[in-house]
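agent> step 3/5: call structure_predict on target 'Aminotransferase class I/II-fold pyridoxal phosphate-dependent enzyme' (Deinococcus arboris).
agent> reason: downstream docking stage needs a structural representation; sequence fetched in step 2, passing through unchanged.
tool.input:
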Amino acid sequence: MSLSPAPAVDLGAALSRRAQSMNASAIREILKVTQRPEVISFAGGLPAPELFPIEEVRAAANTVLDRYGPAALQYSTTEGHPPLREWLAAQAGIPAANVQIMTGSQQGLDLLGKVLIDEGDTVLVEAPTYLGALQSFQPYLPRYVQLPTDDGGIDVEALEEVLKTTPAKLLYAVPNFQNPTGRTLSAERRRRLVELTAQYGVLVIEDDPYGQLRFTGEPAPSLYSLGLEFHGDPDRNHVIYSSSFSKTLVPGLRDAWVQAAAPIMTKLIQAKQGADLHTPTFNQMIVAELVQEVLPRQIERVRQAYGERARFMLERVQADFPPEVAYTIPQGGMFLWLTLPQGVDTAALLPAAVERRVAYVPGSPFYALGGGENTLRLSYTSATPAQIETGIHALGDLLRGAL
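tool.output (status=ok):
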């Protein structure tokens, strides 16, 4: 018996308001366009694959299987592999109960948005800020307020003025070698930011995937450590810390973590149970095998390589770009940020750049409330010196014609 024709279902209308608010990653969409092998891409913030410790990962995987057997391939606890959590906790001087393993830092941001943000909550973000955080938070329907930044990071005087008049739930920041600008929040501003947010009852998410990748300058204390110093108790700390092994070891294992006070951690665990039960056991065990000896060597190797590539890209930018183009000078991380004269639209220029076989990320998607049309981001991490020289020269020709 055949079924009677049914009325058409409006599938788009069936989507939740949360789903309707989601947007595709602008960077991922750009990367699709730049996958042609002849295009030199400075667009994606990808770790250099030739630096991956393949043999060390292979040896660690064998060790894990020999030591744990079937347990390495079994379901595990939501909180994470105990030896890995304990090692991370020891680095921060906190109990392991304040550490939650995540399946990539992007999951950490998504789950933090889920447990912290109600519709209409005010979330303070840098202008510009990490696009992936905006993508994670947007489904929870926050109200964004942009904080001005300069070469020293967030303008804390402007932050204080905002907090005097705007009740805010949360401040999200990338203090070390920020994505997209490469800027670093100064030590003096870090302390003031922690004091101000504590005074006004604002939670802080410190996103720190690049902190270990410093190649010049002196390290500054994390916001989390300053919050711990301020409160004296990890379960009273209003700063939440998020980081990852993706930029220091390998991104494909998708191992990251969050450090937070117990009330937040309890809800993060419950949210993760609903998302994926736990981060893959085998991957966590592999990382735990690598953190003692391989990770420090790998960090040093990556630092040296990225420092050389950043310096070379800066040299080529200085030589090939018009003098009207301003640029950041990163002390670490993966990115260089360019500001062109007002009226130049870097998104509109991108197709012409791709025709010249070079790609970048336009800056406007990094602004929560719009703007930045005259900015762009370059990544130096996964390009060879020859590619950097050729690609920057091509971009310089394009920009000279546009200005």
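agent> step 4/5: record observation. The first strand starts at residue 40 and ends at 41.
agent> proceeding.
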